[in-house]
């Protein structure tokens, strides 16, 4: 394909070597800056918007910030409903053996016992209880007994062991 302008000898020369053609001149206005601006000092950013001309998302952002500051100023956590805490231990039924505590070693051995194992096996490890709690009806026609063992290394925590007849049925920790 042979284009007519490609055959011109001046088209293969660089732009700077081409003869001037009749092109309209582009008027580029000179930028007049004060002499202090001609130095390498940073120029200030122009004010793009005044308070009355803020985009629509700024009121929402401003409202969120005000809400957050009000939330920080007023501690409303005590107003919210909380779940009832187990801040005290259940009352013991019958006699209390003050000398009984459960050591870390006894607790570690106890935790290896599987549910539905014999009550005698548990008693061999933990010994006599600190006290007994009121019996529960966990399942229909089955009465469950609960025994308490305070932890020697944490006086505010007690281990409560659940028995159904002569079987070990589970445990829980009671925190004060």
Describe this structure in words.
- The chain is an alpha+beta fold and 176 residues long.
- It has a domain at 104-175: Beta-lactamase Inhibitory Protein, Chain:B, domain 1.
- It contains three helices and four strands.
- The longest helix has 17 residues, at 57-73.
- The chain is elongated, with a radius of gyration of 43 Å.
Q: How many strand segments?
A: 4
Query: Fraction of residues in helices?
Result: 10-25%
Radius of gyration, in angstroms, nearest whole number: 43 Å
CATH topology of the domain at 104-175: Beta-lactamase Inhibitory Protein, Chain:B, domain 1
* Gross geometry: elongated
Going across the biggest sheet, name each strand in turn: 1-2-3-4
* Euclidean distance between termini CA atoms: 96 Å
Structural class: alpha+beta
Q: What's the SSE blueprint?
A:
Layout: H1 57-73, H2 104-110, H3 119-126, E1 131-139, E2 142-151, E3 154-164, E4 167-175
Antiparallel strand pairs: 1-2, 2-3, 3-4
Key terms:
22% strand, four-stranded antiparallel sheet, alpha+beta, 18% helix, 176 residues, Beta-lactamase Inhibitory Protein, Chain:B, domain 1, 3 helices
């Amino acid at each position: 394909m042979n284009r007519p302008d490609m055959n011109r000898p001046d088209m293969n020369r660089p732009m700077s070597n081409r003869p001037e053609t009749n092109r309209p001149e582009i008027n580029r206005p000179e930028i007049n800056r004060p002499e202090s601006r001609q130095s390498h000092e940073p120029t200030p950013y122009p004010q793009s918007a005044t308070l009355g001309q803020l985009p629509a998302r700024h009121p929402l952002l401003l409202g969120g910030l005000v809400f957050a500051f009000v939330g920080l100023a007023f501690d409303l956590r005590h107003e919210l409903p909380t779940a009832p805490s187990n801040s005290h231990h259940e009352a013991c039924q019958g006699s209390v053996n003050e000398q009984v505590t459960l050591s870390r070693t006894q607790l570690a051995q106890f935790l290896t016992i599987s549910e539905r194992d014999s009550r005698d096996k548990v008693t061999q490890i933990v010994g006599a209880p600190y006290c007994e709690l009121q019996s529960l009806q966990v399942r229909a026609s089955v009465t469950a007994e609960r025994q308490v063992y305070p932890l020697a290394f944490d006086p505010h925590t007690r281990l409560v062991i659940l028995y159904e007849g002569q079987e070990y049925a589970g445990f829980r920790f009671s925190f004060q």
